Amino acid sequence: MPTIPPDPTSEVSPALRAKVLVEALPYIRHFHGQLLVVKLGGSAMEDPAEREAVLQDLVLLRFVGMRPVLVHGGGREITAMAAALGLDTRFVGGLRVTDERTMEVAKMVLTGKISPELVTTIHRLGGRAMGLSGEDGPTLLVKRQSGPQGEDLGLVGEVVEVNPEPVLSLTERGLIPVVACIGLGYDGKSYNVNADTVAAALAVALDAAKLIMLTDVVGVQGPQGELLSRLSVTEAEALLADGTAREGMIPKLAAACRAARAGVAVHVIDGREAHSVLLELLTESGVGTMIDPDAGER
Q1: CATH homologous superfamily for 33-292?
Q2: In angstroms, rounded to a whole number, what is the distance separating the alpha carbons of residues 54 and 52?
Q3: By three-state DSSP, how is residue 186 classified?
């Protein structure tokens, strides 16, 4: 007989469990039928328990009537595979310099390994999902992107057009789209696109109610490392301008600002915290940082 793991909520009183469910009800009602874009990254991509917790959240959201869309990167696995093949890895402004061989590795890792693994896990958890990349449809049309100082990044794409139909058709069928961050260039080539950029562009094109970005920190941090729980777009852009945002937070925050400028509420949250997606969406206090064009209360 298989061993049944202990229920972590077994010591929680029935009254407290009911209170938690009741607290979530208005948020479930508010977001019912709405599209939510979730960008999976950081250690939640690498740690099986953290990744499964995120996918459980998405399956639950789908069953209570929301329409989640999962966007994933795979930077660490691409770096590891490239190293195994003897390829150097270099970043400029938080973006991977991508030659043709590295692009082949990125496609192999993103669409041949990570997407199928995520889809399989969602199915095992009781949901339904289908993987696609920005080339399918095509969903993402891109042009070649340069670095912050005009550096040549190779096959790195900047999103120009988004065709939301392939993603919408999956959500309308009750599926969770799992989107790999590869775009189709106007020159017919495949391009590596930053996952935060893809998530933001999709959220805007889908008119999503929320964009949730999972990362390895508690949220957006100020000059002294303090958590900034709520930011206007202007305040978030100031963090980019004055150098407070560094390394991988630069493309993440820039993408978040673009989405917020277009009217999407953006949340940057810690993917290491179990079920942080549910905590952010379905509780009054929330977690992490919210970036919103408005200056009202969370």
Answers
A1: Acetylglutamate kinase-like (3.40.1160.10)
A2: 5
A3: coil
